[in-house]
Amino acid sequence: LNMLTQKEDMEQLKKYLEEMEEGLNRVKVERYTSIPAVDAIISEWHNKALDSQSEWSFKGEIAKIEHLSVFELCTLFSNLLSNAVEAVERVVGEKRIDVNISVFQGKLVLDIGNSCDAVQSSKSRPRTNKKDSINHGLGLKNVEEVVHKHKGLLEYETEPGWFQISIVL
């Protein structure tokens, strides 16, 4: 895409984007946000949650939010949902992921909660459980960068057996 943009080859760029959209339309993608790329990410993690025998609840709907790019929305949903699915996969017992999205006064309100194996309460960013902590644990940092860029609000809350992240952008 960068190459086509730099060459200002609008015909090839349009053709490439049309082919991508056709490919997305062939894959069963549920509509959550009316933003195809974001819907594809949410659908992918929804399917992975179901594969891990997790209950999945998704409430709300959003359309384009002027101050957030599609890339930023993809960054948020991809990182947060991958963390949620990875957390529930480690849980013995009830596995659940709850996603609530809305727009209030032009701001995205996003709450994602999931079962987890935590035994202590905390209000800080959780640390990665992976052995290779140098190459992991970057997802929430990426989320924090988007929130910081837009001067948004972000809260973490961990209770025994449950993790919740709340974002207002």
Gist of the model:
The protein is α+β, with helices and mostly antiparallel strands and 169 residues long. The chain has 5 helices and 5 strands.
The end-to-end span amounts to: 28 Å
Number of helical regions: 5
Output mean pLDDT.
88
- Give me the count of strands: 5
What is the N-to-C succession of helices and strands? Answer: HHHEHEEHEE
Task: State the strand order across the main sheet.
Answer: 1-2-3-5-4
Low-confidence stretches: none
Principal-axes geometry comes out as: globular
Helical residue percent band: 40-55%
- Sketch the major β-sheet: 5 strands, mixed
Strand content: 15-25%
Helix/strand-derived category reads alpha+beta
C-alpha-based Rg, rounded: 17 Å
Walk me through what this model shows:
The structure is a single chain. With 169 residues, the protein is an alpha+beta fold. The protein has helices at residues 2-6, 10-26, 36-51, 70-89, 139-149; strands spanning 55-60, 96-104, 107-115, 153-159, 162-168. It has a five-stranded mixed beta sheet with strand order 1-2-3-5-4, covered by helices on one side. Helix 4 (70-89) links the parallel strand 1 and strand 2 (96-104). It is globular and about 55 Å long.
